[in-house]
Write the structure tokens for this entry.
Amino acid sequence: LFEVREVELRENGRLQDIIEGYGRRIYYFDLRQKTEEDRWLEAHNLLVDASFEHSLVPGTPAACYFKLRGHRGAHAQLDTRLAVDGRHSLRLTTPEYDNGLNVELFPVQLATGQAYAFTFWAKARQPNKQLWVQLGNGEERQFTLQTYWQEFRWVFSANGNEATRNSKTSIRMSLLSQGVAWVDQVQLLPEPLIVFEKAPFAESTEVRV
């Protein structure tokens, strides 16, 4: 039902697909057109499902883990009403200070000694709310959210102590302040990002930093 795949849509508006006996399919058609004001995800982002678009269970993002820290009223779920990129954002609700839900993004492989930039967009229902972020090595920071979308950026170096099981590391987030906040478009990129591309109409390689 929630399989992530693409089906070709022909010029006459018809699509062709295979459906097993007594089976059914539900298709989603995104007819929106991106404008210059829309924010694009970087193709070299290391995080899975950076805009929280995939869901195996309705309302629950597919590429992160949740850990209850204390209050049973704390929760996190997809929100279709607010988003920076795509159709969803992740809404965090904390009933009491420092009793929110820990959101752990799927672990990724980091190279020791390499610098990385972790960026995300976030906003809160009320101003000056604190969002807590922790790296796999225990280093942590707090970011102050306002009532409008802002992009936050944290550059760090992988020192080798961040390796967890399977030599991967995770990034954890939690809304410290009591209230409601939204997070979207989380990205983890090498810093600086160096991309080798084939230069058009030339027998050479273009380097983009």
Q: What stands out?
A: The radius of gyration is 20 Å. The mean pLDDT is 82.
